[in-house]
Amino acid sequence: MRWSLEGEAYPVIRVELEEGEKLYAEAGAMMMMKGDVKVDTVLIDLEEEGNVLRALAEALGRKLLAGETVFHNVFEGPGVVWLSPSLPGGVEYIEVKGECWTVQDYSYVAHFGDLKLDLAWKGPKGLFLGDLVWLRACGEGGLWVSSYGDIMKVEVEDEMVIDNMHFVALPDDAEWRVEKFGGLKSFITGGEGYVIRVKGPTTVYVQTRILPPLAAAIARFMPSRWAELFRARL
């Protein structure tokens, strides 16, 4: 299997599939394809679990708690498939060699190989971060993630403090903890809120932009409910 990124600001993933090779992608990610590619849509984990009810329960859990799709599209070669991430930003490939990686919700795009996707519970930490789960990918294979903005690969040697909303992915065995940003004044007025302190040595993928400020900026130009009611009465 060969792959490459095409495009600059908002790249797409180009994957060349040999006979019998399979590529799993989130629903709606396919941009175009060519060759004798076979396509199937499966319930997440159904092939691995062999238990429809259990697979459905886990897939629905990911949909409700992590925002992920319930189904995967499976592309089997020979042929070429282009995948377009849902987020307007960077794409990064993570090679998984028998370990587990934790990925923020909405960043998963596609994978290949013997990878198992599951929920990664944040535990009490998630209450501070605003959500309770990430995704966990374990096994052998490759994983593509995307983000809003670009993606940076950061090698943490000792310790590093990262805004929680800038996380994209990190090894599942990484040591981290949630803490307030600075003192009480900085926590309330500094705009960061909670941050995550990561202990090295480890690797962390972070995104250069986050969606809430964009959503807030767009909301300023959206007509309010009262304005709509006023115009309706004119």
CATH superfamily: Mitochondrial biogenesis AIM24
- Report the biggest beta sheet as strand number plus sense, adding barrel if it closes: 9 strands, antiparallel
Q: Helicity, in percent?
A: 10-25%
The average pLDDT score comes to: 80
Strand order of the largest sheet: 5-6-3-9-10-8-13-16-11
Tell me the number of structural domains.
1
Quick tags:
48% strand, single chain, Double-stranded beta-helix, 16 strands, 6 helices, nine-stranded antiparallel sheet, four-stranded antiparallel sheet, alpha+beta, 234 residues, 21% helix
Question: In terms of topology, how is this protein built?
Answer:
Blueprint: E1 2-6, E2 12-17, E3 22-26, E4 30-34, E5 38-43, H1 46-49, H2 52-66, E6 71-76, E7 79-83, E8 91-103, E9 108-121, H3 125-129, E10 133-146, E11 151-156, E12 159-163, E13 167-171, E14 175-180, H4 184-189, E15 194-199, E16 202-207, H5 211-219, H6 225-233
Protein name: TIGR00266 family protein
InterPro entries: AIM24 (IPR002838), AIM24_sf (IPR036983), Trp_RNA-bd_attenuator-like_dom (IPR016031)
Model description:
The protein has 234 residues and is an alpha+beta fold. The protein has a single domain (2-232), classed as Mitochondrial biogenesis AIM24 (Double-stranded beta-helix, 4-Layer Sandwich), CATH 3.60.160. 21% of the residues lie in helices and 48% in strands. It is built from 6 helices and 16 strands. The protein has helices at 46-49, 52-66, 125-129, 184-189, 211-219, 225-233, and strands spanning 2-6, 12-17, 22-26, 30-34, 38-43, 71-76, 79-83, 91-103, 108-121, 133-146, 151-156, 159-163, 167-171, 175-180, 194-199, 202-207. The strands form 3 sheets. Strands 5-6-3-9-10-8-13-16-11 form a 9-stranded antiparallel β-sheet. It has a 4-stranded antiparallel β-sheet with strand order 1-2-7-4, with no helix packed on it. Strands 12-15-14 form a 3-stranded antiparallel β-sheet. A hairpin with a 5-residue loop joins strand 1 and strand 2 (12-17). It is globular, with a radius of gyration of 20 Å. Mean pLDDT is 80; it is low at 46-50.
